[in-house]
Every structure is written in structure tokens, then in C-alpha cells.
Amino acid sequence: MSRFSSFRSLMLASLMLLPSLPASAEIDRDKIAASTAAVDELVAQSGKGAQPPRLAQSEVSALFDRIFDASALGDAPLTLDEIRDTAPLAVNGSRVLFLYMLAGTGASQPAQLPRDAATARKIDANIVGYAPEIGRVYDFTAHLQGAYAEGMASFRTNATAQQLEDVEKGTLDMRKGIRDTFAAILQGIAAPDYPIEWRRERAKAAADAAPKIAQILMPAESSILRERAKRAASKAGDEALAADLTRFANAL
Q: pTM here?
């Protein structure tokens, strides 16, 4: 699988439709709105130069902090309504991803790209070249998927048979999203053309989310991700990287 295919799956899989149930007030809707406003500002800045704004710039770093503010999710497990209401955060992540992944292609959405080898090479080069920015998308998506999984698992614990039936498709979509997300993350971690510090950061974020995604995955799904992580750990060549990959595997 090319990096383009895996990253596209990573973000598109973050979105799901779930039935509406009573909401709680744990999530911070002001921070969700601020995230969207920050993405709008980032996109506006990208139109002023030959390349997208870089994370090394202090003002861009501040925008990223607003876009990927995990505190917007609150501390308690999300309700199903909150999973739905935090969908703008996943959309914002996809907008950041596409801004950097598609830079210089003339496209704003993957569907607009021609499917040829030259385009695939350009996308792969962007993903490596903009690794600092795209790495933040990785980490936030891992955190978001973990929060979604924890919320769904919490709901299912006390759900009636009818409620479980009502959320069956949403549960299947969530599991697929998790599989695709973490397969893409593990692929990036295993790629030697990323700096070791970048790989360590992604592995830590994935390992932190692992206990939550384990609550919703089926045994076979956990097994596939576990084995990928173990293979990556065996070839890591770095103690800290291998430790977090092992921590990810052991949590599933």
C-alpha cells in the first residue's frame, strides 16, 4: 500500500454516523469551533506562499495547537452524541492532511488527483517532506479514535439489545476506522526514511491510545495490529521506539 492510500484511509475512516442519544456537556464546543477557525486561518495562509506554512514557524505552531486541542474532548468517555458532535475535529484533521499531502498537485481533494505513478511519487514526497505537520495529524487521529472507541465501549456496556442493534453499523464502521488508522500509523513508524524522533513520537501516541481501541476491537482485528507492531518493534533498531511499539502490542 502506498503512503497516499494509507493516509487517505486514516482520515476518511475517522468519520462515522451514529444514532442520536441524549448528550452530556463534557465536550468543549468553543474549542471545537476554535479548531475549525484555526484550520480556516491555516488554509488562508497557505494561499500566500509557494508552499504550505511550516510547523517550525511560531505562529503556525500556535494554529496547530488550536486545531489539535485534545482537551476539547473532555475527560469522561464520550457519549454517542458527543462522538457525532466532535466530527468537525476529524474533518479539521483531514483538511490539514490534504493541505500538506496534496501541496503542489493543484488538487484540494484526493478524488481530484490522476491515478498515475508521477502523482503517487509526488504524494509520497510530500508526506515525507511535510512529516512534522503530518505527524501531528497522526497523533491527533490516534487520540480521537481512542476516545471514540472508549465512548462506544462505555455505551455498549449498559445498552439494551435494541440499542446494540441500532449502533451495529456504527460499531462496524468504527472498528474499520481504527484498523485503517493504526495500520497507516504503523506503516509510517516502520518506514526508515522518517527521522527516528518522528517515529518515536508516533509510536508513543499510538501506544497511549491502544488500551482504549482494545475495548472495541474484535480479537482477530487486535491480533493483526499486534503482529504488525511486534514486527516493527523487532526491526526498530532503537530502544525507545521498540518499547512503545511493544507497549502498543501488549495493550491489544
A: 0.89
